[in-house]
Amino acid sequence: MRKIEAIIKPFKLDDVKEALGEIGIQGMTVAEVKGYGRQKGHKEIYRGAEYDVDFVPKLKLEIITEASRVDQIVDMIRKVANTGKIGDGKIFITQVERAIRVRTGEEGYDAL
Questions:
Q1: How confident is the model at residue 96 (pLDDT cuts 50, 70, 90)?
Q2: Residues of the chain above pLDDT 70, percent
């Protein structure tokens, strides 16, 4: 099993969710996160004063899947979340040693 973590722009969530649903992805975890990279934050104006915002709001998607589906999922996320501009995000893939469904105790792929 693999875990795909994708950091994307918030306004791309609905498009990514719909596209992943079309290829059979039934579940994911989504969290609001903040961070920065090359984008280095941005400036905002509040009550006439300009402020530097060091951390940019993003969303982190987590999907656990069998190893054979990773490339398909990653390709779909890359295609749909891409705006061609700085700050489009990152995708990380890690190995998952064990998964357990809390309610039933099922393990492995059955727990997904």
A1: very high
A2: 90
Helix (H, G, I), strand (E, B) or coil at 111: helix
77, two tokens: 């996320």
Chain-centre distance for alpha carbon 82? 12
Both tokens of 34, joined, read 């903040």
Give mean pLDDT, residues 64-77: 96
* Long-range contacts formed by 63-66: CB under 8 A, 24+ apart: 63/3, 63/4, 63/6, 63/20, 63/25, 63/27, 63/28, 63/29, 64/1, 64/2, 64/3, 64/4, 64/96, 64/99, 64/112, 65/1, 65/2, 65/4, 65/25, 65/112, 66/1, 66/2, 66/109
Q: Where are any strands of DSSP class E within the chain? A: 2-8, 29-35, 42-46, 49-53, 56-65, 90-95
47 has pLDDT over 80: no
CA–CA dist 112, 109 (Å, integer): 5
| Separation CA 21–CA 31 (nearest Å) | 18
